[in-house]
Amino acid sequence: MASLLEKDQIGKREDLADYIALVDAHDCPLVSGAKKGAKPGNTRMDWQADAYASAVATGTIDGTDVGSSDYQNPGENRAILSNYVQVHRRSIRVSPLSLEISNVAGINDEIANGIAKKLVELKRDMEKSYLSANDAQEDDGSSNAYLTKGLATWISTSGGSVLQVPAAFRTPSASIETTATTADITYTTVQDVLASIYSETGSIKNFTMPLGRTLKRAFTDRLTGTRSVTDASNNIAATQVRTFSPQSGKKVTLAVDFFEGDFGSVALVPDNFMPAQTDGYVLDMDGIEIRYGKLPEVKELPDSGGGPIRMVEAVAALVVKNPLAHGKFDLAS
Fold it and tell me: Which of 115, 183, 281, 299 is most buried by a 10 A CB count?
């Protein structure tokens, strides 16, 4: 375990301003916005998903009795979905001289400062894990730790290979846009994904979409203004005309933060921890939970002379109640 030694301390008091600026202060919209579910009862969690039978347009002949061929199994579409918990941990150690003698600008307490930083870093670790393409993984006691299945694997046509999502509940390919690029994404591209989700759920929803920087720029660059139709026969390229508002010369507003389509509305939330900056997840947040086996906590570990140790740890799992309710943009740049 790496220790902070007095000789390595940065910012020891000389003529430094009495503050420290954190350059990296990313938000974690998924971890912050997801519901906090019930505490897991085990390292593996199971929950049920169900679906209605397909609608029919046939009638019933008057006066006929119910026969054995008419019987229907009310649980025929029911399935079990599963995921593992994941242990998220950060730790610090501060040497005695660093703690008791050194005077660092802007730091009144190295331990308190270190704990505050590690709590933020732990939250960022969780955000990255839950947005990732990680498959579920079981702890083998040596080289493999528990991993919770990430959103990129939940929202896929394969459903992962470990604790695999049953075929009937895997996100259909029409809800996953992979053919468009950030250079040619259109309104139709987004509408088609929302239409596919609606075809699975029958509900028009307000979605939240964590997305990378490049995809966010593509929404603004490609979906603003009026685009002309390409005349392929005469080889006339399409052009895009943009109207800036207001036009007083003092301010230009050009951003897409919210997309409203025929089958739902999507709030675009930039997230620096997406697996790729061209990715985005269309999430019905009512169907996303983080279940904490242990909320982030700080634990004091024994000091054997090298300085006080603090461990920051959380145990949690990502729950996607039904992958059919979500979509994904997995675009080329």
Answer: 281
CB-CB contact of 313 with 57 (8 Å): no
Predicted model pTM: 0.86
Q: What are phi and psi of 215, to 5 degrees?
A: -70, -40
Q: How many helices (H) and strands (E) does the chain have?
A: 6, 14
Distance of alpha carbon 193 from alpha carbon 328, whole angstroms: 8
In degrees rounded to 5, what are phi and psi of residue 279? -95, 155
pLDDT tens for the 333 residues of the chain, in order: 677 777 777 776 666 666 666 666 678 999 999 999 999 999 999 999 998 888 889 898 899 999 888 888 888 889 999 999 999 999 999 998 888 777 777 778 889 989 999 999 999 999 999 999 999 999 999 999 999 999 999 999 999 999 999 999 999 999 999 999 998 999 999 999 999 999 999 999 999 999 999 999 999 988 875 454 555 566 665 555 555 555 556 666 677 899 999 999 999 999 999 999 999 999 999 999 999 999 999 999 999 999 999 999 999 999 999 999 999 999 987
Please list the alpha-helical segments (H only) found in 109-258: 110-131, 151-154, 187-201, 213-223
CA pair distance 242, 124, nearest whole angstrom: 37
Instruction: Please give the structure tokens belonging to residue 14.
Output: 């000389």
